[in-house]
Amino acid sequence: MPIDHRAEAERHLDTAVRHLTEVPADMRIAEVAAAIGQGHATLARNEEVAATAADMNEALQSLRRRFNDTRTLVSKHIADGLASREKDRWKAANNLTKALDEAHCNMDSLIDAHLADDGWDPRSAYKVPADESGWTGYAAEKEAERDPWASAPDITTSIPEPIRRVLAGHLAEMLLNQSEDEARKWARGITFELKREGLDLGDAIKKRITDLTLGADPSDPPF
User: Is the pLDDT of residue 191 over 60?
Assistant: First the structure.
C-alpha cells in the first residue's frame, strides 16, 4: 500500500510540536519526530513535482498532436486553394502562405506534399493567373472538374445500394472503434473524401451506427 507522505509529514510534525509545547523534557523525541516529518515532507514535494511534470508532459504531447493535426488541415486547405481555377481563392491561399511565413510557421513542404498527392506540380502552384479566364502553365493544363473548390455532382443514388451499405457498415465500425484513434481518423477522412467526390454516406453511416448500438430494425433488409 503506498505511503501518504503528506499525511505522515503532518502526523510527525504534529508530534514534534506537541512534545515541544506540552512536554519540554522530551526534546529528543521532538527532534526525531521533526526530522522524520521533514523527510516525509520532502518526499511529498518530490511526488507532487513528479506528478506535475507528468501532467505537463501529457499536456505537451496533446498540444503537439493538435498542432500537427492543425498544420495538416491548414496545409491541405491551402493546397486546395492553390489548385483552384478561381483567382480569388488562389489569391487567398497564396496570401495565407505568406502570412504563415511571416509568423514563422512555414508549411511549404506539407502543402507541396498535398499537391503532389493530388496529382499537381508543386513547382507551378504559385504562378500568377494569366487573366480572368485561366492560369499560366499550372492550372491551364488541368480540366475544370479537377478544381477542388467546385461542387461535386451528387452520385449517391447512382452507386448500387449493396455497395453503399457495405461502405457505410465498415466506416461505421471504424468510427465506433474506441481503441483505435487511427481507425476513427481514417473513417472520417474517407467519409469526407467520398462526400467531396459526390457520394454522401452520412445517412447510411448514421443508420448503421444506430443498428450496431441499439440493434437492427427487424423490418430492414439484412446488412
Answer: yes
Say if residue 37 is exposed, middle or buried (CB neighbours under 10 Å; 0-12, 13-18, 19+). Answer: buried
CA-based R_g, the chain, Å: 31
The C-alpha angle 58, 64, 69, rounded to 5 degrees, equals 130
First to last CA, the chain: 52
What is the mean pLDDT of the segment spanning 51-60?
76
Mean pLDDT of 4-10: 74
In the chain, DSSP finds a helix count (H) and a strand count (E) of 7, 0
**Is the separation of the CB atoms in 82 and 94 below 8 Å?**
yes
Query: How confident is the model at residue 38, as a pLDDT?
Result: 77
Q: What are phi and psi of 131, to 5 degrees?
A: -160, -170
Beta carbons of 122 and 164 less than 8 angstroms apart? no
